[in-house]
Amino acid sequence: MDNQNNTSPVAQPSPLGVGGEPGLFGLTKRIIPCLDIKDGRTVKGTNFVNLRDAGDPVELGATYAQQGADELVFLDITATVERRKTLSELVKRIARHINIPFTVGGGIKSVEDVSVLLNSGADKISVNTAAFNSPELITGIANAAGSQCVVLAIDTRQEEDGEWYVYLNGGRTKTDKKCFDWAKEAVERGAGEILLTSMNHDGTKAGFALDITRKLSDNLPIPVIASGGGGKMEHFEDVFQQAHADAALAASIFHFKEIDIQDLKHYLKERNIAVRL
Amino acid sequence: MNLAIIKYNAGNIQSVLYALERLGIQAEVTDDAEKIKSADKVIFPGVGEAGSAMQSLKEGNLDQVIKDLKQPVLGICVGMQLLCNHSEEADTNCLGIVPVEVKRFPATKIGEGVLKVPQVGWNSIYDLKSPLFRDIKEHSYIYNVHSYFAEDSEYTIAHCNYGIQYAAAINKDNFYGVQFHTEKSAQIGDQIIQNFLNI
């Protein structure tokens, strides 16, 4: 494949991040497709008719990489006893074939789990419920492998009192902890990024949760990946411009080609949002 | 070509190996001084913390081995930082091959937000001047994960800007260093590795 930058307009390193807002200099906003994995296969269907095997996470991931995805997230929902072995073998295959960074998450409970995945070639590990139940897991991973590889995933829902609460176990279990408080504690414990999913918005395709994303992004010294609700290109514009997210993650709109990653990046660039083209 | 990757306790280097494998290049990961000395090219990787990485080099007596190398050497990320004089990270005296200081990104306030540290993501490199960047366009994007950077100096061969303009790549004599992760920088990264192997 040709060097993509050769065909793109030259991006100037700018002191401005997005449309007039002071930003992070030359650093670009990231677009991250998320792939759900079960038993080493992608679980959601896709519209990629040209793939030999749309159920193969490696082939789908490589396709996204070629389309200009900035990173990939692989979320494993395998529940069998074989999961650790299946997952580490999959991670090795991904690392062999894909030349952009990727995060692996789903059911990771121990520093040992993390070591296996990092040694298999994962760049970052996302932790969720286990980290909430044992926050020292975050510190443990950060000490063993560095904060840069610890992505704290938070599933959050805004309740009737207007507050955002942390949910666990894939959104099935409510806690009394407020989202911002948990995120702040996680940063202090060594989390390197926050992957924030709004349960109110996830699956709606009606736009990202701008207020809580902005609250975290503006008040925490680490990057925030917004997730849940991205359905149209303008939703991505909004989450970068208004909510100051560092990255935006989506799944089905990419899998079903409702939004093409290259088109999305051109759309954002036209709106003065720094993206890698 | 005989390519050696220096083995020491500085994080996972599997990604570097896979990247070379994608380019069809075989490399030997070794801490054997003779093998490193006799290699045609040497890659000096590194992920993690400068202080413990330097300590690990010293314990294996690899610090002197690296300083004496005459063939092209490419330091990546912490590997590049260790080629420098000194790092603010754990107040570490590095190899001193390239007389440059490694500093931490300042906690700068930007508008309503702060400069987030580490820098994580894709940024562009410019003012490219080295065979390392042959066929690489100005302002190409590369992937970064780091909290510390090499200060701009006469040894800078590529600039990057993250709140401050710093050296994304350095060169002195046969020693080259890149702060970004070539192995994760898509086609640009592959091209830079290929260029290094062609030096």
From TrEMBL, chain A:
Protein species of origin: Paraflavisolibacter caeni
Gene Ontology process terms (BP): L-histidine biosynthetic process
Source domain of life: Bacteria
GO MF annotations, alphabetized: imidazoleglycerol-phosphate synthase activity; lyase activity
UniProt lineage: Bacteria, Pseudomonadati, Bacteroidota, Chitinophagia, Chitinophagales
Record keyword Cytoplasm present: yes
EC number(s) from the headed UniProt entry: 4.3.2.10
Record keywords: Amino-acid biosynthesis, Cytoplasm, Histidine biosynthesis, Lyase
GO cellular component: a single term: cytoplasm
Active site residues of this protein: 36, 155
Assembly mode: Heterodimer of HisH and HisF.
Gene3D superfamilies: Aldolase class I
Membership in a protein family: Belongs to the HisA/HisF family.
Pathway(s) served: Amino-acid biosynthesis; L-histidine biosynthesis; L-histidine from 5-phospho-alpha-D-ribose 1-diphosphate: step 5/9
Described function: IGPS catalyzes the conversion of PRFAR and glutamine to IGP, AICAR and glutamate. The HisF subunit catalyzes the cyclization activity that produces IGP and AICAR from PRFAR using the ammonia provided by the HisH subunit.
UniProt catalytic activity: 5-[(5-phospho-1-deoxy-D-ribulos-1-ylimino)methylamino]-1-(5-phospho-beta-D-ribosyl)imidazole-4-carboxamide + L-glutamine = D-erythro-1-(imidazol-4-yl)glycerol 3-phosphate + 5-amino-1-(5-phospho-beta-D-ribosyl)imidazole-4-carboxamide + L-glutamate + H(+)
InterPro entries: Aldolase_TIM, His_biosynth, HisF, IGPS_HisA/HisF, RibuloseP-bd_barrel
Keyword Amino-acid biosynthesis: yes
Subcellular location as annotated: Cytoplasm
Official protein name in the record: Imidazole glycerol phosphate synthase subunit HisF
UniProtKB/TrEMBL annotation, chain B:
Pfam families from the UniProt entry: GATase
Active site as annotated: 77, 181, 183
Keyword tags: Amino-acid biosynthesis, Cytoplasm, Glutamine amidotransferase, Histidine biosynthesis, Hydrolase, Lyase
EC number: 4.3.2.10, 3.5.1.2
Major localization class: cytoplasm
UniProt cross-references to InterPro entries, sorted A to Z: Class_I_gatase-like, GATASE, Imidazole-glycPsynth_HisH
Molecular function GO terms recorded: glutaminase activity; imidazoleglycerol-phosphate synthase activity; lyase activity
Pathway: Amino-acid biosynthesis; L-histidine biosynthesis; L-histidine from 5-phospho-alpha-D-ribose 1-diphosphate: step 5/9
Coiled coil: none
Superkingdom to which the source organism belongs: Bacteria
Keyword Lyase in annotation: yes
HAMAP family linked: HisH
Function: IGPS catalyzes the conversion of PRFAR and glutamine to IGP, AICAR and glutamate. The HisH subunit catalyzes the hydrolysis of glutamine to glutamate and ammonia as part of the synthesis of IGP and AICAR. The resulting ammonia molecule is channeled to the active site of HisF.
Subunit structure of this chain's protein: Heterodimer of HisH and HisF.
Name this protein carries in UniProt: Imidazole glycerol phosphate synthase subunit HisH
